Amino acid sequence: MHLSAALIEHVFLISVVLFLLCECFLTARQIIAAERSVGSVPEGFENRLSLAAHKKAAAYTTESALANLVLSFIGAGFAVLMTVGHGFNIIAAFLETLSDTTLIVEWALIVITAFLMLLVELPFGWFARFRVKERFGYMKQTRLDWLSRTLTISAAGWGTMLPLSAVLLALCELAGAWWWLVVWSVWLIYLLWRWRLSLVRGVLWSRATRPIENSDLRTLVADFLSAHGYQMEDLVVMTKPGVWKHAHVLLVGTGLRRRVVVFAHAAAKLTREELLAVIAANLARLKEHHTPWRIFFAAAGGFVVCAALGWGSTHAAFFAGLGFSPLLTIEQPGAHAGFTTALALVTFPILFYPLRPLFNFISRQMQYSADRYALRTVGGAELTRALVKLHRDYASTLTPSRIYSLFHYDRPHAGMRVMHIRSVIRRENLPESGPSDLVKFRTAPYLDREHPTRSVLSAELAIRRRMHEEAGRFSRARMAAELDQALQKERNYVVDDGFDDEKAPNAAEQSPSRETLETTRHEESSAQKN
Question: Region Disordered: what ranges (predicted)?
Fold first, then answer.
């Protein structure tokens, strides 16, 4: 089918309209879902959140959804202004008056486009991400701190993009018509780097870890992993990196040998069986290869986008349909990678908007699958308690709209995960607590019966406290022994008079009396005077 410029323009404008209508519908569904449940706290969170706080979260969710809707309209308006409004034509024409080198013009166009996107998003993003939270009392930072941090992050990202985009454009120019494969290869390298180096080894190498001394917990985790075909190398606790939002436990390593890393916030809140449920969910991601599947889908999505870029860079209708004059783009020498990338930054988030719920759906199904694995191997009650304890974002409602969440979040909400666990228990007639899988690993022999609600970190601190007390007692005993030994040496030095114990004279013969000594001294002094 021949794609004309008019057809591409109509497709883009229809996509913009559908995008805005869809966002309006999703926002309305989110508001209805938040306000529908204000009468009672969701099941499982009764002891964690009051009804007043739940109503406040619903009101905040309403205003936050409306603010994000405004951001969607601003983004769509900016895309229309840069394309149909001839924004790209004006900027490209101005840049070509400054330089005759097409590669420099393309690089400058990408840099300016990214800067304009930051400039437009900053004031409206301030209202959506700071002002609304400040009004409800959820923002802990001051305005100056938030603005300084946001500007620092934006400037750092924009500054990092300058040399990287220049190098990438140079490589694309060398590749010619197949430049989009170079971009896709860079995307693959980034995905693999983030998986194998940045998210696992890079973070663990740069952060201090401490072995967990609780022998009962170590035995519990080691036996659980062994029952499922894995071997535990070590069990350590570590502070959670700030860039991670969802992880609570890591199973680090290769093959069947794994090092279990528990983040401090999870160890501080969870009991042994609750922590085991979280470990079981992470074990499911490992056994079902969730991370390789995520990389595969990300690589497939990147291939589709890069292929669309490669096709557009060789067709004048692509540029003309999106309001970018072919005289300024495809009729210039080169691979046109920069012109196509600048267009993609503005238009592809809208054109590929329908793919967002598809990828989010796949990611959420993986999360639900991991929860079902933990439910069957450890227990639904244990996993539910762990999810409730680890949930932190009580600013947003616990009952979001399912379809809104599907379009905007790649992971299900904690409340949705709890509802899914309970529905699986009812549907499959599973026990509320304890395992139901064929692998009959029972946690009962490992539980802390003296303190069943004690968290892992509390137990660890108690063990370390006992170790310090024992070390203190040992140190005091050692110091007392050293003191006794020193006193004994002093006593031997003073008392030892060269006599054997058997031949020692009695006390009266050993030392003369006080009067005898004084008489002797008086006689000696009188003799000296005479």
Answer: 494-530
- Closest to 355 in 3D by CA, of 293, 405, 305, 281: 305
**Domain contains 103:** yes
CA atoms in the 13 A half-sphere facing the CB of 98: 13
Are 173 and 103 in contact by the 8 Å Cβ rule? The answer is yes
Residue 137 lies inside a defined structural domain of this protein: yes
Residue 393's SS3 state is coil
Tell me if residue 281 falls in helix, strand or coil: helix
For 400-435, letters b (16+ CB in 10 Å) and e give bbeebbbbbebebbbbbbbbbbbebbeeeebeeebb
Residue 354: how many CB atoms within 10 A of its CB?
12
User: Does 411 map to a domain?
Assistant: no
- The yes-or-no verdict on residue 16 having pLDDT over 90 is yes
Residue 326 resides in a domain: yes
pLDDT per residue over 131-159, tens digit each? 888 888 888 888 889 889 889 988 898 88
Orientation angle between helical segments 272-287 and 290-312, nearest 10 degrees: 50
pLDDT score for 464: 61
Residue positions counted in the chain: 530
Concatenate the DSSP letters of all residues of 299-349 into one string: HHHHHHHHHHHHHHTT-HHHHHHTT--TTTTTTSSS--HHHHHHHHHHHHH
Helix ranges, 496-511 (H): 507-510
Q: Look over the chain and give the mean of its residue pLDDT values, rounded to a whole number.
A: 82
Domain region containing 146: 5-195+292-353
Burial 31-47 (b: 16+ CB within 10 A, else e): bebbbebbeebbebbee
Residue 373: both structure tokens together: 């694995």
For residues 257 and 200, the model is more confident at: 257
Structure confidence at residue 500 as a pLDDT band (50, 70, 90) = very low
Measured torsion, CA atoms of residues 235, 240, 243, 244, in degrees rounded to the nearest 10? 60
Measured between alpha carbons, how far is 172 from 338 in angstroms, rounded to an integer?
9
DSSP state of 3: -
Q: What is the pLDDT of residues 377-401, one digit of tens each?
A: 888 888 999 998 888 777 788 889 9
In which region does residue 211 sit, left (phi positive, over 0), alpha (psi from -120 to 50) or beta (all else)?
beta
Query: Is-contact 354 22, C-beta < 8 A?
Result: no
